[in-house]
Amino acid sequence: MATMATMSIQTASLSIVHYPDPVLRQIAEPVADPSAAQVRDVAQRMIELMNEANGAGLAAPQVGLSWRLFVTRADIESQTLPAQVFINPVFSNVSREMHRHEEGCLSLPDIHVEVQRPMSLSITAFNLEGESFSVNGTDLAARVWQHEMDHLDGILILDRMSAMDRLANRRMIKDLETAYQPRRR
Ligand code: ZN
Asked: What is the pLDDT of residues 49-103, one digit of tens each?
């Protein structure tokens, strides 16, 4: 695979990719230089796409880039702008307490499943200035971070849903598989 330095990305042409695009199943690569201009351009385009789609978060693999980067609404609860960018994120202080809640995914339109996840955790990541920062999250914030982190590891809510949800969403999943057309690279 081309490295970031050699890869030329037309950020304006980035769009949200849907399951079963294989990029959604790859383990994403760390971003070598979080403060690079191209990383900023990509993050800005991702924020645009997230807002257009009214999503709470968006991970780089969802725009076809296998990078360890995701964006979320800065204030997830009130869904206000601006967004927050997490580059090369890692979790710590993951709570033992779990919480079950419905999730959707911009790469899996019309599919909503219940997912059980730890209730709270801390995240450490780099921002677009290349500085490390840490924040604690509970409830929805922790859930969105975990959902987006899953994307960086090639995991989808399809892998975390119950047998009952699998059955309930069977037709929608099949429709996505039927509609899938490989992207031109
Ligand atoms: Zn998703």
From this structure: 998 998 999 999 999 999 999 999 876 665 555 789 999 999 999 999 999 999 9
Q: How far is the CA of 155 from the centre of ligand 1 (A)?
A: 9
Q: Is 102 annotated as catalytic?
A: no
Q: Which of 77, 103, 148, 177 is catalytic?
A: 148
User: Ligand 1 centroid to 38 CA: how many Å?
Assistant: 23
Residue 102 pairs in a beta bridge with: 114
CA of 33 to the centre of ligand 1 (A): 24
Whole-prediction pTM: 0.93
